[in-house]
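Hi R.,

Quick one: here's the Amidohydrolase 3 domain-containing protein sequence you asked about.
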Amino acid sequence: MYDMLFKGARLVDPKNRINKITDIAVKSGKIAKVNEEINTNCTSKVFNLSGKVVVPGIIDPHVHLSNWIGGSEGYKMIGE
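And here's the predicted structure, written out as tokens:
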């Protein structure tokens, strides 16, 4: 059983030379399985990512991490 399943995503992983449409299963916050077809009966949370791209290591490439734009949170918004 998985916590969530992402269906039909284009997985682009330059390091491992992967560029394909695939399903991605997540369990306990980590990728548990990557396969072309994972059964949707293995989870209650299924997300259709058709037309979307998944790239390992890129969380949000467009962020403003300082408070120069008036926000008081500044660097507190950086992910851990």
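Residues 1-54 form a domain with the Urease, subunit C; domain 1 fold (CATH 2.30.40.10).

Cheers,
M.
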